[in-house]
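Recall that a protein's primary structure is simply its ordered list of amino acids. Everything else, from secondary elements to tertiary packing, is in principle encoded there. The following example makes that idea concrete.
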Amino acid sequence: MEDQESQEIILKGIGGSPGICIGKAYLVDKEGVDVVKRYVIREESLSAEVGRFKTAVKKAREALRRIIDDMPEEFRQHAQILETHMLLLEDKMLYDRTIDVIEKERVNAEWALKKVVSLVKPMFENMSDDYLKQRAEDITHVSDRIMENLVGADQVNIASIDKRVILVARDLSPAETSQIQLERIKGFVTNCGGRDSHTGIIARTLEIPAVLGVGNATLNIKNDDIIIVDGKAGIVVVNPTEQTLLETEERREQYEIRKALVARKSHLPAQTEDGIRISVMGNIELPEEVVSVLDHGGDGIGLYRTEFQYLSQPDFPGEEVLFENYKDVIDVMGNRPVTIRTLDINGDKAVDYLRDNQERNPALGLRAIRYCLKKPEIFKTQLRAILRAAAFGNVRILVPLISGVEEVDQTIRLLDEAAQCLEQQGVAYKRDVPLGIMIEVPSAVVTADILAEKVDFFSIGTNDLIQYTLAIDRGNRHVAHLHQPLHPAILRMIKRTCDVGREKGIKTYMCGEMAGEPLFAPILLGLGVDELSMNPQAIPLVKNAIRSINTTNMDAFMDEVMGMTTPDAVEALVQDTYGTIVSKIEPAQQEQ
């Protein structure tokens, strides 16, 4: 028995998609693509080498097109991700530069591609914005597809797997993930990737358990090993003991029962026991995700990230393209609110990070509203598109990373100029659109009373607010554990923002990850947050938690919360007071 128990291994990663599954591991081997040697190409053979690279790109494009054409209905909402990969195949960032390296350095196509990727990827990986960091994965997936054709590696064909298994891979591209057949694939585990990767997004859409970023999964797991994947806790158990299997199976069954019960009530309003109604909205980055928000009972779109439309284009998108994207979302949402966040990128150009324009500290550099105000024509193109789309529905504009009132004044001036331009052109638009600002930096909290005079609502972005307040880079594994939403400083920041909002007569919303955690709902209601927005899959859980809360005696609880001096003490208090709310809808996490 001791030998059996000693074989059990627990691997820790990032919870990419909640849920629990138990089954046999199926290793997807793609390691051969990484083995690339450099050799010199003779002058007379350079054109043939360039031709070999172009052929590899052509094959990759054709393969992606076949996958898109054969895509099952449940993946249709993510077709745009693969369309973006097709654009990247011939983007100058990869395509032109690789050809340049082949010709100028007289090297083989494999080596040239590897060199270009090694230069381009860090430009994304070093960015402060989590969403943009994940775009480095798109570069990897696209280049891997080309490389497989160059080196003659076997293409991964997930659609051909004909048994019930859990996929284990170094990484899975969105193209590969979109070939998953739900009746065969129980879940998956990857060495690479993060929660905000497109692969993670697809996993959550399919609602299959996934643990990403494990690092060494393919080394510790063999084909046909029995493994447990806990996508909520971010844990993989290899060769579990009989006792672990029994306990996990019980938790899995409880989770599925609770999930089904919660889902059946997802379209009921989020109203507390004492009659206070809270809007629970969805965060999206692709127009196609709107369906998921509605399916999960969302009351609207609390955060529509618009960066993807810029990164998925070979150049800055025009007004018409942006307008059509925004209108698509608005048409589906009807009268429900759609909160469009203005462009939040950094660097000199969204598609031109290959230039030597990297900032030494991008988190504190030219990004979000700072970038937009420095590039007013790019900004006004987006503002015109938003104002045009606003004529068709219930639109709110949200401006990221505001640190002072001057930025708000300049934004309002540009909005007026955009409206004046549309008026002169005789184009339908709506200027009377609520304008809100993201509360993400301490200076915005401190000057909230000044900012509130200029805007219609606040929206707290807890991800950046925690990063800037506590000086924590979540992407740095050495300090990521210090990223604590319940830190007393963060709670006081939120409280001040809500207090000022009430005093000035404007609403305070929250669209950061903190909003999507059911356990935090009592505190956020107690602090006075008027609306919560989160990833669509979290909506039913948070709505269910809100329906179980009674705010009648909330003041005494909040006095106790605000008197706590550590995050652990706050969490213990919330667990003691409201822990049963979460236990009704989520399985207890496996002890680590």
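The radius of gyration is 25 Å. The domain at 265-583 is CATH 3.20.20.60 (TIM Barrel).
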